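User: Modeling request: complex.
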Amino acid sequence: MSAITVKPWLRRYEDYDEFYLSTEVVICGYGGAGASAALEARRVGADVLVLERASGGGGSTQMSSCEMYLGGSGGTKLQREVGLEDSTDNMIAYLSECFGAHGDPEKIRVYAEGAAEHFDWVESLGVPYKRAVYLERTVVPFSDESLLFTGNERAWPFNTVAQPVPRGHVPSKEGDEGGRIFMQALMATVEAEGALIKTDARVLGLIQDDSGRVRGVVARIDGMEVAIEASRGVILTAGGFVMNREMLARHAAHTVPFGEPYGNQWDMGDGIQMGMAAGGNAINMDQCFISFAFYPPAKLTYGLLVNNKGQRFINEDAYLARMGHYAGIQDKQEVYLLVQNEDFELPHYFDPPPPLVGTGDTVAEVEREAGLPIGSLQATVEYYNQHAAQGEDPLLHKSADWLKPIDKPPYALISMKPADVKYPLGENSGWLMFTLGGLETLADGEVLTPQGVVIPGLYAAGRTTAGLPRTAKGYASGMSVGDATFFGRRAGKQAASAAD
Amino acid sequence: MSAITVKPWLRRYEDYDEFYLSTEVVICGYGGAGASAALEARRVGADVLVLERASGGGGSTQMSSCEMYLGGSGGTKLQREVGLEDSTDNMIAYLSECFGAHGDPEKIRVYAEGAAEHFDWVESLGVPYKRAVYLERTVVPFSDESLLFTGNERAWPFNTVAQPVPRGHVPSKEGDEGGRIFMQALMATVEAEGALIKTDARVLGLIQDDSGRVRGVVARIDGMEVAIEASRGVILTAGGFVMNREMLARHAAHTVPFGEPYGNQWDMGDGIQMGMAAGGNAINMDQCFISFAFYPPAKLTYGLLVNNKGQRFINEDAYLARMGHYAGIQDKQEVYLLVQNEDFELPHYFDPPPPLVGTGDTVAEVEREAGLPIGSLQATVEYYNQHAAQGEDPLLHKSADWLKPIDKPPYALISMKPADVKYPLGENSGWLMFTLGGLETLADGEVLTPQGVVIPGLYAAGRTTAGLPRTAKGYASGMSVGDATFFGRRAGKQAASAAD
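Assistant: Request completed. Predicted assembly structure:
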C-alpha cells in the first residue's frame, strides 16, 4: 500500500484486507507522555503496543532534569511534609495568570485538581524525592533537595494574584539526572506490566476509515512497512517540532534568528503532522519556551537587564522563560545585564562564558564602551537607583529582595545576545527553545478537529499537543514534563477504556 | 453524499457517479483575489465558475480604500509620470527588511518584478489614477492624488536599507471609495469576458480523489447541496479568518485582548480550512495586521508614544501597522501619546475621540494624573528633549523632520489603549486587525503540503494564503490588496493552463 502523495501521513482503512498485527492501543512515541499512557492503558487491562522511532525509550523527558510542576489540593505529599500549603484555587489563579488568553481553562482546572495525586503516582514508581526544599533562585538544584521554585511565583505580577509556593518537584539526586531516574523507573514498570515495546520502529502514518475513525498505524519495523490495527485507539506522543527547521520557519519564524533547539533529535513534529492529516487541529503553533538563564549565581538578579536602548523591559527576578519571552521581543534580541562589582560573577550555564561588552568605573564609561545610546543607560540607572534606595521598583516591580542601588563600581555589562550565549565548548549558540504548539485535545487526550469534533480513536499528549504550558511568558520548569506525564496518563486510560 | 463527520470540508471523488455541473476552473470567493483569478483564467480560455457565499461580489477589497503597494522595474507608470524612480532591487531590499525571517523571498522577488506591470493591468480595467503624489503623512489621501507613502519607507531602519519612494497607488477619488471603484470595474470586466458568477453559493468542501488531486467542490446553491467538477483546478480565494473568533483564539491568542476584527463578515477561514482538509499547510497563522492610527493629523507625529512605564518603544514616524505591532507587545497594550499644546489635536479616526488621561503645565503633572510611575515620563521627556534639540533621536531614530523638544505647555496624554480606541458612535473598540496567515502556496498559487509537495488541482490566493505581507511589523497599506490581486491573477492563469 503506497502513501497518497499529498498525504504521506494518512492511509485509508478500507484499502486494507489484513493487518500484520492487531492490538487494542497503539502508542506512537516512548518518552514521558507515551510511557505514562502505556502504563495506565495496561492498568485498565488493554493490550498495548508502543512504537518508538529511536533505538531506545526516554525521549526529551529523559534528557531533562525531570522537574514536574505540581501542587494544589492542600499540597502534594512533598509540599505538606516540608510544611507548605497549597490549594487548587491558588494553583488555578497562578496558572491562569501564566497563560492569559493562550491558556486552556479546562486543562488548567483538571491539572490543578489532579497534580497532587500525580505526585503520589510518580513516587509509587520508586522515584526518590527528598523531603527538603531549596529556596534559592536557581534553574535546577545543585544539591539533593526535591522541591524548589521553578517559575514566577515570587515575581510580579504573579505575587499579586496568587500565594507563592514552590511547585517544582525533582527526583532527589545531586546533579541533573532526574530525567534518567524517572524514565528508567517508569519504563521498567511499563514493561513489567506487560506493554509491548518496539524501538527502531517509525510510525509512517495513521490508518483512518471513511467515517473518520482512526483504526491503526503504518510503521516501518525491521525495515518492513507494516499495518497495525488498534481496536481501541492510537495515542500520539511523539514530542514537539523544535528539531524541524522547516516547521519552525513556517509556524514560529520569530524564533529563527535567535533560537537554539532543545530536545531530542526526533522532535520533528511527526505526531502533529499525522494528527493534522487525520483532521486534527494544530494550535498555538507560534509559541515556544525560550530561555537564557543568566542565573545562577542568584546574585546576578541584583543586576539590570537592558535592551539596546539602555531600557529595562522585565523585572529581573522573573523566571528564565519569562525573561526569554520579553527579551525575544526586544530589537534584534540585543540584551545585556549590568552588574556592579559586589555582585559580579559570570553566569554559570554557558561555555565559554558570555563576553563583557562594557566595563568601567562609571555607568557612562560602560555605556560608551558598549555602544549604547549616550545617556540612555545612565538615565535608566539613575532612575532605578533613586527608587531602589527606597526598596521600590515602580517601573517593573522587581521584588524588594533584589533591589539595591547600582552604585559600587566597577561595573560590567554582560552580553546575553543569542550569538554570545554559547553551549558546550562554544559549538552552539542561541537561546534554548522548544515548541509549545500542537494538536488541540480534550483533557482526556481526544484529538479535536478545527470544528471541535472529536476524532474517534485518536488521542495525543505531551508536546505533540497544545497542553498546559502555552507561552514562555508564563512557563515554569516542570510544566512540560508535568503536563506530558499527567495528560499522558489520562489519554492512556481513556483510549484503553474506549469501546472496540 | 454526507460529509465525513471529522472532515466536513472534504469529500471523496470516488464516491461520486455524476456531477451537477462540470467546468474547468472553480473559484471559491469573489473578492479581489477571486475576481482577479477569474479574469486571467478566462483570458487564457478556460471555463470559469465563481462561487460566492455573500449576496454579491467584492469581499474585503471592496470595503477597503484599494491602495495597492506597487513599484519596482524603474517605477510604475504613475511613479514615472510624477517624476519618481523605483527599482526592483530597491523594492526587494525594502520588502526583505519588512518581513525578515517571516518573509517569502520568492514571493517578494516575483512581486517586485511584476508590480509595475500589475499597475498597467489595473489601469486597463478603467480604474482612474491621477498623476499626482501626496507626500503628507496619512493613512488614505483626503484629496484626489493617487500616489502616497503607505509604509515605513521614510522611517528607521527602512530608510537605511532602501531609497524611500511612495508606492501606495490608490484610485483617484476624494474620500475612501477606491475599493468600490476598483471592484466594480474588475467585476464588470470579469463578467463581460464570460466568467459565470454564482452568489449566495457557499462552498461546503473540496472533492479530492484518492491520488490527492482536487477534482471539484461541493456547494450549497439555491438551498441545494450540489457537486461541481473542476477539470483544471479549484482556486481558494475566500479571505482570511479574522471574523472567526474560535480560530483567532487558537492561532492568534495574543490578539484576543486587544483586536477589533476588520474585514467582511465571511472572513471566516473557510478557504484555509478547506485547503488544510485536502492536505494543505497553513502557516504564519499567528501573524496579523494590527493598527491604531493616531494620525492624521500628521503633526501628532511630533509627540511621544509611551507605554505604562513611561518608556518610548517605537519611532513615532513608523507606519501605523508597525506601531500596532510594537504597541501590541507592551504590557496590557497600555500606550499613550504625549503631545504639547502647539501640536495638539485629537486623532481623526476615532468616534468618539480617545480620552486624555493626563493634562498639565508640567510633564510631572501629566504623569501623576495618568498614574504613570513617578519620574518615568519625566525621565523620558528629559532624555528626548536633550537630543531632539540637536535634531537627534539616539534611542529610536525618529526622523529629524519630526524631532523637536516637548517643552511648550500645556501637555496632554492621549490614551491609545484598545478600550479607548472606538469606532462609529463608540459601538466597537480595539485596534483594527486582520489575519496574515493562511495556506502556503507557490508564487503561481499552487497549494503546498507540509512536506512541500504540490496538491494537484488546488490553488489559492489572497488572505486565504500566507502571501506577500507576513507581519504587522513590516506591513504597508496596499500590500494585502496588491498581493491578493497580483497573486490572484497568477493563480487564475496557472489553474486555467493546467492539463485536464
